[in-house]
Amino acid sequence: MAIALGSRNETVFSSVKIMNQKTSLHGLRVIDFTRVVAGPYSTSILGDLGAEIIKIERPGTGDDSRGWGPPFVGEVSSYFLGLNRNRRSVAIDLQTPEGVEIARKLIAGADVVVESFRPGVMDRLGLGYEELKKTHPSLIYCAISAFGQTGPYMDRPGYDLMISALGGLMGVTGNADGEPVKTGVALIDVSTGLHAAIGVLAALHHRTLTGEGQRVDASLLSTELAILINVASEYLIGGSIAKPQGSGHANVAPYQAFPTEDGWVLMGSPNDKLFRKMCDALGKPEWKDDPRFVTNGERVKHKPELVGMISAITRTHPTAYWVDLLSATGAPVAPINRMDAVFEDPQVKHLNQVAHVEHPLYGRYPVVTSGLRFSETPPVVGNAAPRLGEHTVEILTEELGMSAAAVDELIQQGVLEHRPAAGQDVAIEK
Q1: Which of 181-195, 354-368, 370-384 is modeled with the greatest confidence?
Q2: For strand 428-429 and strand 112-115, is the pairing parallel, antiparallel, or unpaired?
Q3: Which residue out of 93, 111, 189, 217 is catalytically annotated?
Q4: Up-side HSE of residue 169: CA atoms within 13 Å toward CB?
Q5: Nearest one of 79, 87, 82 to 56, comparing CA atoms
Q6: Is residue 335's pLDDT more than 50?
Q7: Given 175, 179, 250, 273, which is the most exposed site by the fewest CB atoms within 10 A?
Q8: Number of other CB atoms surrounding residue 237 within 10 Å
Q9: 79: Cβ–Cβ under 8 A, 6 or more apart, which residues?
């Protein structure tokens, strides 16, 4: 149930499971064996669209990102809380036969499995696709890996940072002649999560038409190659090796950050019409007829001169002046915001993309919601991120029919873990 929060135009969602709201993926059950970023991001997309997500975690530590802090909220990082809303957690030791059998029973009642173990791990556990499809031929099985399921690097550990280096993104990020720079957000992980979710949805459509399940593979390296777009085509087609451009662009000018009296402003002219508008706004109408700047191709050739001339002008006023001036003319412009300014921006507030979820132990905290909007089946936020094993007893007794005594015995043996969501509010630790 959603409740408006006055002037801040945010939404509060209770931790009560949303059952009656019409959603795109209502009734779809996903068993989530993923951790860190790419996998949880993909299942978050499915969860936002109404799928029921059951997250399988290892007892004791759970998802690695639970410890990625500070900041922490009690025992868990804000990193984990932001990525893992709208799912239930079951803590199972998959190194035990009992744990594997419980996992198989959960999968038997599911539509989708998403996993991010190293290639071969699920097969060794008896939970690989080829084994599961024998008794569950309609299952959609999505495997997320670093380098792919086969090949010389398949057994290497791989994280976003390493893949972005090997796959070329880091080779075009940062300033020319500077040290290597990573992106501020794990874009390869996030993009892989998007690809995985798209793959699952495509496989579900195929199953609707044919009744057949299938395996979907997504890797960080393959995803990175797919999103290199112009940088890849410039090399493959034109033989040109892209270099770091700072905030600029190798094929468009001007299109970068410029210094101002109090900071920086991002300005750009992807076409000749917009460049002419920029010239007028900068008080330099004569640039519109300058042979060096008449076309984008010429502007790229004379980029150092043009950037220097524009910079001499932008330094004379603060950033807000240029944002207001150029916005009024229709020329592209933006401030370079930090997070505090981002969430105070009028357009960001208008998008109403920050919601508060209520956790019975951690209290109320904000999360960024889905970037999608639907006319008939809007995304949901639903539940706050769970404690490790918060739903172990609930799911195994109510949905698998196990007795409370049997579950308790497995908890005592360390096969399962259960941490109830009860207690006093915990303050955020900076």
Answers
A1: 181-195
A2: unpaired
A3: 189
A4: 24
A5: 87
A6: yes
A7: 179
A8: 9
A9: 65, 68, 69
What was the pLDDT predicted at 326? 95
Q: Cis peptide before 70, with omega less than 30 degrees from 0?
A: yes
Tokens 């109090």 correspond to what residue?
A: 262
Q: State the angle between helix axes of 272-281 and 319-329 in degrees (0 to 180), rounded to the nearest 10.
A: 130
Residues with Cβ < 8 Å from 85, sequence gap 6 or more?
44, 47, 357, 367, 381, 382, 383, 384, 385
Indicate if the pLDDT at residue 359 is higher than 80. yes
CA distance 303 to 256: 11
Q: How many CB atoms lie within 10 A of CB 355?
A: 20
* H-helix segments, 16-174: 38-48, 78-83, 97-108, 121-125, 129-132, 160-166
Question: Tokens representing 21?
Answer: 């709201």
Instruction: Tell me the residue length of the chain.
Output: 430
By the 10 Å C-beta count (0-12 exposed, 13-18 middle, 19+ buried), 364 is classed as: exposed
CA dist., res. 111 & res. 141, Å (int): 9
- pTM, two decimal places: 0.90
The pLDDT value recorded for residue 81 is 94
Per-residue confidence (pLDDT) for residue 22, from 0 to 100: 86
Helix (H) or strand (E) holding 188: helix 187-210
What letter represents residue 49's amino acid? L
Note the pLDDT of residue 205.
98
Closest by CA position to 57, among listed 426, 393, 390: 390
